[in-house]
């Protein structure tokens, strides 16, 4: 049994290098890493060899279920919760590097017999080092990652920045929950029954609803600026897997506003539950404590997990896996992509020039004028 479980939930190629390098340098050593990975079947051997090289205790698994081309973020986090052994759980975003005392500092807030807490750190987005296409499963960087390069990468500014960076250490509202750098007791996340997997029906603020339940459960919600992590932001090279659209339903998926309406309905229901002294829990259609027994054998890693058996919608995948990238609109903002004179447009984006200089123009489908996110051809990854 370990004291801490660090859960990282990822679906992008690369990013393993800087996260593992940061975790390998932690001052507190009694922790495990549960890497829930949508690319599990493509890089399991490489991941485990790299973990062994760095001396990391890593459990590498896919999500407990998949839905073809669609994102299953909350199912991924719940998989991590169910496979964790630590008394304390820390959630970690992908492509993140952390200070050497990061685990130790999170743990300090969760001493036995202390008040229950939900602790947040901020996340700062930085540009990426020079990248190399085609990408490697463990890294998209041209050169081997070294921690000392992080401070030299440019910081993103609003609106591409975490609002927690402007706040001071102390009490904070649940609406700042991002499921990127939070810690809490494992027994509490089981009691609130993890993330609400209804949000995997499309877009929606699953992170805020998650934090709201911890607040109603009686947790003090705190921000510690010393817990800030650095993310070499991959979003503008490797966008998030498709969720749906902001304003309309696609293929029966929730729009963001559908997810927001569901969240607001749940807020009212949970308040009524609290008044009735009932249990504050998600509407995920299973109990974490029971579902855990079905997948607990994944921890030993002795047998490769057959991901075909966990995908309930494989026909939505294109040939060779992945998802269709030839779109006219940004998969994040639903804004029409710029497809002409992209280089001219990028030259005006001084903050992002370092990201794009090494990208093969043939890999680019288009660029979103709202979030500056590139849509890249899947076969170039």
Q: Can you describe what's shown?
A:
The longest helix is centred in the last third of the chain and has 20 residues, at 256-275. It is built from 10 helices and 13 strands. The strands form 3 sheets. It has an 8-stranded mixed β-sheet, with helices on both faces. Strands 5-11-7 form a 3-stranded mixed β-sheet. A two-stranded antiparallel ribbon has the order 12-13. The chain is α/β, with parallel strands linked by helices. It folds into 2 domains: 4-312, Spore Coat Polysaccharide Biosynthesis Protein SpsA, Chain A (Alpha-Beta Complex); 325-381, no CATH class. The protein is 25% helix and 14% strand. Helix 6 runs parallel beside helix 7. It is globular.
Class of secondary structure makeup? alpha/beta
Helicity range: 25-40%
Number of strands: 13
Highest-level CATH class of the largest domain: Alpha Beta
What attributes characterize this protein structure?
2 domains, 381 residues, Spore Coat Polysaccharide Biosynthesis Protein SpsA, Chain A
Write the layout of secondary structure elements.
Blueprint: E1 4-10, H1 16-24, E2 31-37, H2 40-54, E3 58-61, H3 73-83, E4 88-92, E5 96-97, H4 102-108, E6 117-120, E7 123-126, E8 170-171, E9 181-185, H5 186-191, H6 206-216, E10 220-223, E11 229-232, H7 256-275, H8 288-295, H9 342-347, H10 353-356, E12 364-367, E13 374-376
Parallel strand pairs: 1-2, 1-4, 2-3, 6-10, 7-11
Antiparallel strand pairs: 4-9, 5-11, 6-9, 8-10, 12-13
Helix pairs in contact: 1-2, 3-8, 6-7
